[in-house]
Amino acid sequence: HYARNVHPNTLEDVKKWLKPDDRHGPPEWIVMTIWHKKDKKPIGSVGLGDIKWFNRWSNAFIQIGEKDYWGKGVATEATELLLQYAFEEVNLNKVSGQIILDNVGSWKVAEKIGFKFEGILEQEFYVDGEYKDVRRYSYTKDRWMENKKKEENKEKEAD
Asked: The pTM is what?
């Protein structure tokens, strides 16, 4: 409901959306399907959008389309894996996200993972006939690496 991305609506639109384009250079979007292993089905998508390669910045997005999987840690796990991919594979320096104020579940996930709250952007998105404020968050690579080292040290101490 709160996704501000324009998604393809027909099978033909999906085929066009997934077809490689004639552009040269790195992609502006990286989109991945969230696949539920146990239930063996796709339940959402996660990715990096509006990638700015020179600045090594991107906007993160996630959508769990199957309501049966909300509140079960799927978004948390998928977002953590996305950050690992963004920082360790894609070599981005910063990943940001904007979450509509009403979408409490999503900003709780962001805060649980360790995204830094940067502020409120007034009337940033248009939803259901009204403008909505959003919470802006970010995660930087140096903070990611620092938190990763802390986790590794905790594991060593537990052994």
From this structure: 0.82
